[in-house]
Amino acid sequence: MAKFLVVERQKVRNNIKKVRQRAGAAVVYGVLKGNAYGFGLLEMADMLRDEGISRFAVTEPRDLIVLRNSGFVDEEILVMRSTSIPEEIEKLIEYNAVATIGSYDAAVALNGIAEKNATSADAHIEIDTGMGRYGFLPEEADKAVNVFKYFSSLNITGMYTHFNKAFSSGKATKAQFDSFMGVVAAVRQAGFDPGTLHAANSSALMKYPYTVLDAVRVGSALTGRVAAKGSFGLARAGYAESNIVEIRWLQKNQTVGYGGDYKCRKSTRIAVVPLGYADGFCTEKQRDMFHLQNSLMACMSAIKAWMTGKRLSVSVGGRPAYVLGHVGMQHTVIDVTNIECAVGDPVRFEVNPIVAGAMLPKKYV
Length: 365
Fold this sequence. Notes:
Strand content: 15-25%
Mean pLDDT: 94
Helix content: 25-40%
CATH class of the largest domain: Alpha Beta
Radius of gyration: 24 Å
Number of domains: 2
Distance between the termini: 19 Å
């Protein structure tokens, strides 16, 4: 039996339109990292281009190369991972990327290799206002200014920062925004044009209009799966589909799944579907359990689900079918006692598309 990650093109197009409406006159960078959040790098790039978006952002140089070799030759592609590795920088220059400069070492390396190749390299400077990965710190504004001042083989065309709590904290987001704009002001005061400014990610675009500068970077909003609470008019896209491969009756007290934690309370008609957590079902991003607040929230969520009787389910013929026992790596058992169905019937799963997109072939509808 086949199983797929199904991507609804019309929902993605709807989300692109909503993003453009909120962005207004700002340029939209379509973020395609992580295989376009599992939806497919090239397919999503095609849809973005069809909707008039011609600037992309990726994390890995290999994605840049795939896009260029697949016909995306005129689009601007920002590589968001700062690097001082010579082999990677050579590829950034060869494939006409806009590089990210997140440290003085990265600026030195990029400038040197561009100079060696008798060319200039386009780049954006990243400011680290809280993410803690790449970028000059706000108190290092002088170092950012020096990149403009001293590196003749660099063409600085923009500056940006990345919000780490736009989905949950307006106060933290405003503080990050102000820190970023402080560095921008220092660059301007030194007599340099900072170029295209961008700070808003998907959550910030949806919640905080003031963060929309010259451009926005949007990834999760394209899939309708923004971390911030609220739908914002977006359509949740992407689901997995597989088929029933076995139907049988289990008697009262028979167990289901690893651990034997689930016992049938009565005679139960069950269906077996060959799709599990390895395919992105019943998975989620790792909680930050080292943080007390996150630990408490996770516990409260589990208690609420238990008290309200909320149960994990899938869809069979448009009807919910409850999952029995633990979800297996590649199997899920569901209760179909009161559902008319047969072997071969399709079953729909809500999945994490980042995982599912890496494991399952994709079907675009």
